[in-house]
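User: I'll paste a sequence; please echo it back and then give the predicted structure.

Assistant: Echoing your sequence first, then the prediction.
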Amino acid sequence: MKWLFLSIGILSQVLSATCMKLSSGFSNLLFTVWAFVFWGVSFSIFIFALKDFDLSYAFALYAGAGVVLVAAVGVLFLGEPVSSIKVVSVVLIALGVAGLNL
């Protein structure tokens, strides 16, 4: 169950960040509202996940996976540029988070 909570928290975080981008600085009300909804869900569910995870590992995974997934969404769906340094940096973040579980 803890992994389900953490996964939902991460997914909600990614959706919130994506909606923030699509809100165009609060000018698109629909995406602005969804950004706040997903943000609230993300933090609320993450609190439940913290009951069964060490904080250092859970937050690193929450933040690191969020960064990796948001970068992928930006490149794949929002037309953001990709460079070798961006790919290497995202891989290093993922490796760092994985290393915390060793």
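The two ends are 21 Å apart (CA to CA). The chain has a mean pLDDT of 95.
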